[in-house]
Automatic annotation (TrEMBL):
Biological-process GO terms, alphabetical: isopentenyl diphosphate biosynthetic process, methylerythritol 4-phosphate pathway; terpenoid biosynthetic process
Enzyme class: oxidoreductase
Enzyme Commission designation: 1.17.7.3
GO MF, one annotated term: 4-hydroxy-3-methylbut-2-enyl-diphosphate synthase activity (flavodoxin)
Every IspG TIM-barrel domain range: 31-293
Swiss-Prot/TrEMBL cofactor(s): [4Fe-4S] cluster
Protein name per the record: 4-hydroxy-3-methylbut-2-en-1-yl diphosphate synthase (flavodoxin)
UniProt keyword Iron-sulfur present: yes
Organism: Cupriavidus agavae
Key words, A-Z: 4Fe-4S, Iron, Iron-sulfur, Isoprene biosynthesis, Metal-binding, Oxidoreductase
NCBIfam families: ispG_gcpE, PRK00366.1
């Protein structure tokens, strides 16, 4: 034994930061945020909210992908008037996902003039940097908080470094100038973000909004700045926190930046709900931001959403594209089935499926997964052994490997997660 090892190595994140718990409610659906609840995944539509049908369809797609909360833009009287219709259409479709209204500049007017909109939303998002200027700021902020109290709605107070309250920023800069050793400009900006969020939350509590109905966010677009802001914000308050880069970017850059920032914070126990703000590629599905958020949490071991496919990257041994095609096919199939499976087969989201491309790591990885297949690489025998819970059960050959393997996956799900699976497991344990 290595004498330098004084204690066992235990993988895992740090304990979750203690926070208050907010409840986002629509009908019987209560989505808790903070206070020990699972880290929630949310998203935002990019449709014109005035298009009630198009917006409702996109919300349904996001909810089906697994978005637990969906935010919509409410920026005009026409958009506010459309919100009750959107909510009604979702209810008719059996989609009870809570809606968040995103307000800027005129939120106090829209919530006051369109009470049905205020009631149909489950949560309001307020940016203290653009709720009003000068003397109007406090008055209009108070009006929105009073309406949230009237309709019993939680509020996310979302500060953004692109729209900071200029009066507050000037105050923080003056305070910095008075220091014997002034802070660098970057630190002043971070301080202004945190100060704006916490002071706004405390004002909301003074007006009458319960602290457990408040969620804070301080969004920036750079990874290191986001980590620094949330570490300090989490240290200074116990409100639930919403994480996300404000503009993550396109494609792999947006995914990498979001993963880099959020993973560090989540590993440190900071963060209660996340949104991945990806710039969608032309024609790309909006649900991608939901999948990325889920995959961050699942690969970190914080939550399980869908069976994970383990697949090798390929090399000179795997000149065939068969394993790539099968891995993509199975991953897509599992995602498509989850809306049904999560209700019929509880626990299936913890299943691992391995799709490997040659004999080097193929059999080993397949044995470690619940179900695994090791496809032939270049020059190998045209046979694909299949392993179930570490035991080789059969070998597939021919042109129908994909269909036959999918059938094996289906059977495993039914037998291990179906209604009789737990009863059988209990009986075997008792025996």
């Amino acid at each position: 034994m290595n004498q330098n090892a004084t204690q066992p190595v235990m993988p895992g994140s740090m304990p979750r930061r203690n926070s208050r718990q907010a409840s986002i409610v629509w009908g019987d659906n209560i989505v808790t945020i903070g206070g020990g609840a699972p880290v929630r995944v949310q998203s935002m539509t990019n449709t014109d909210t005035v298009d009630a049908i198009g917006t409702a369809i996109q919300i349904k797609e996001l909810a089906r992908a697994g978005s637990e909360i969906v935010r919509i833009t409410v920026n005009t009287p026409e958009a506010a008037a459309a919100v009750p219709s959107i909510r009604e259409q979702l209810d008719r479709m059996g989609v009870n996902t809570p809606l968040v209204g995103d307000f800027h500049y005129n939120g106090h007017t829209l919530l006051h003039d369109y009470p049905e909109c205020a009631q149909a939303l489950s949560k309001y998002r307020i940016n203290p940097g653009n709720v009003g200027k000068g003397a109007k700021r406090d008055k209009q902020f108070a009006e929105m908080i009073e309406l949230a109290c009237r309709y019993n709605k939680p509020v996310r107070i979302g500060v953004n470094w692109g729209s900071l309250d200029q009066d507050l920023l000037a105050r923080v800069m003056d305070e910095n100038a008075a220091r014997a050793q002034p802070w660098p400009a970057q630190s002043v900006m971070v301080e202004a973000l945190i100060t704006s969020a916490i002071e706004s939350a405390r004002k909301a509590e003074e007006i009458g909004l319960p602290g457990d109905q408040i969620i804070l966010s301080c969004k920036v677009s750079q990874v290191q700045e986001l980590i620094a802001v949330y570490r300090e914000l989490g240290r200074r308050c116990d409100y639930a926190l919403h994480l996300g880069l404000t503009e993550a970017g396109m494609g792999s850059k947006g995914i990498v930046a979001s993963t880099a920032a959020l993973s560090v914070l989540l590993q440190e126990g900071i963060g209660d709900t996340i949104r991945i703000s990806l710039t969608p590629e032309p024609g790309a599905a909006r649900e991608k931001e939901v999948y990325v958020g889920q995959e961050i949490l699942q690969t970190m071991g914080l939550r399980n959403f869908t069976p994970m496919v383990i697949a090798c990257p390929g090399c000179g041994r795997t000149t065939s594209t068969t394993f790539q095609e099968l891995a993509a096919s199975i991953q897509g199939y599992l995602r498509e089935q989850m809306p049904v499976w999560k209700n019929e087969f509880p626990g299936v989201e913890e299943m691992d499926v391995a799709v490997m491309g040659c004999i080097v790591n193929g059999p080993g990885e397949s044995k470690h997964a619940n179900i695994g297949i090791s496809l032939p690489g270049s020059g190998e025998s045209p046979a694909a052994p299949v392993f179930v819970d570490g035991v080789k059960v059969r070998t597939l050959r021919g042109e129908n490997i994909a269909q036959e393997f999918q059938a094996i996956v289906d059977e495993y799900v039914r037998s291990h997660y179906g209604p009789g699976a737990k009863k059988q497991a209990t009986q075997e344990a008792a025996a």
